[in-house]
Design goal:
The structure is a homodimer of 307-residue chains. The two termini of chain A are 35 Å apart. Chain A has eleven helices and 13 strands. Chain A is globular and about 50 Å long. In chain A, 52% of the residues are buried. In chain A, helix 1 packs parallel to helix 8 (239-252), helix 8 (239-252) packs antiparallel against helix 9 and helix 9 (259-276) packs across helix 11 (290-303). By secondary structure, chain A is an alpha/beta fold. In chain A, the strands form two sheets. The first copy, chain A, has a nine-stranded mixed β-sheet with strand order 5-4-1-8-9-10-11-12-13, sandwiched between helices.
Amino acid sequence: MSILVVGSVAFDDVTSPSGRVKNILGGAATYFSLAASYFTNVRIVAVVGEDFGAEHENVFHKHGIDTRGIERAQGKTFRWGGSYTDNLNEAKTTFTDLNVFEAFHPQIPREYEDTEFLFLANIQPTLQANVRRKMHGVRLTGCDTMNYWINRTPKELAETLKLVDVLLINDTEAKMLAGETNLSRAAHKVLAMGPQALVIKHGEYGATIFFREGAFGAGHRPFRAPALPIEEVKDPTGAGDSFAGGFMGYLASQKEVNRDVLKRALFYGGVMGSFAVERFGTERLQSLTREEIDARFQVFRELTHLE
Amino acid sequence: MSILVVGSVAFDDVTSPSGRVKNILGGAATYFSLAASYFTNVRIVAVVGEDFGAEHENVFHKHGIDTRGIERAQGKTFRWGGSYTDNLNEAKTTFTDLNVFEAFHPQIPREYEDTEFLFLANIQPTLQANVRRKMHGVRLTGCDTMNYWINRTPKELAETLKLVDVLLINDTEAKMLAGETNLSRAAHKVLAMGPQALVIKHGEYGATIFFREGAFGAGHRPFRAPALPIEEVKDPTGAGDSFAGGFMGYLASQKEVNRDVLKRALFYGGVMGSFAVERFGTERLQSLTREEIDARFQVFRELTHLE
């Protein structure tokens, strides 16, 4: 199987208690595609500027990621700067230069149209919906969003949510989207907006998947994957996108998407997120092996496993 | 086996988004002893005033809790008022009338001195240490504390920590005690202060137990028990004490305290905490059955269990 991700490729400046880096390759689609590449074939649709060179494209090619969907536009690539203080859960954005990303209108190469799994990373909801409508062969669509779109474009987002199978967001976003402070009730309200399943990411505490009644087989109970207590979090940037890459990548590698597969995917999501934060930028995601990934999957599994 | 808890008995006024109650039986030792009573024999040392009547004592007696250690003093029982807004994780204290609790000097009845398990609920650390020193037959001591003592009496607390086996605190307290924002590193610093194991409670996300190298058998990895996403949290008061009651009560019911038993205890802690918050005060803890407790234990287990 293969998966298509549509989203941002960026250059980031990041400051954290562990240090500072400048101009490193980042962006949601970058983190996602690297994480997913350990599980399945990945295709990417994004836009970059004239400062995106062969050395950057090689990062994708080394992982077998199909970059024919990366559009080159005149100008500079999207740039983001963020800093983390002791509370590593929250980035303080120091600058956002949208550059070529401002006019991003995702173009799907004809060769991509048969892709079976689709991930709509965090972009304007109408663009997400347009992409979804063009992909006639898609079996399962995952989607991310953020506070900005929940507040600014609620109607457009509501339309997009009707078209997606799995929404992946964090606690704050879920509560904001539902207008509800109890997480469990918020989850049910979000599911009523369209998705078959909702993954709520809890940062260092793992993630929970909530199901629509009857979706993906019997049973209505939520399922949780814990996360490993990590000694050193160097750079939390991209943790959520790496989670999504592990989650969706694992789904795309399986013959069938049922509840057991979704549960394992939730663990793989946590695994990839936990690797991502160990180094700045995508450094750790670039150097993994499938053996390391499966070893950490076992550690996560044992973390809550009773004999 | 039996367990002794030393701590507060109180009357509480609580306001939450689900309603308001006045003058209900509360206090750390009350929540703890009710939760633990489903697993083992419980003895309590506390102080109450003249307003503590037979109807209150009966709550303990119905659960077989030995109240010979409840001292009656002239004056009123400790009273606490708190309110919760949408963020149910944090109580805003509206009043604290220490009353007879202000001069509490725990007296251990001679008949209690052979108790094998001891829980030092949240009281002044020197009082905790004095109790521990009097209990010569104790096999395992659990201990709670809070920000107030961490900030005001760090030296006294350091002495107490050398005398306890398992410390049970929440994320904020662990980070404050260690002077460290990374939870995993904070845990190791706290373990270096004395306890063999440290339970860090994450509220709705469950709890993690960290072990000293070599303590309670082989292996150094932490273990986590998840918590159930709860639809309605009526009153979070006493959740932590109920957690401790389930955790310590289960330990006291087992022949041996090893890592597997500690892991199961962590799940039982989460189970009792989750029941406590479903109703105001101790209402839910008063009406449980062991069958309901074990059914929820299974739900918690399945919450993160992969086939």
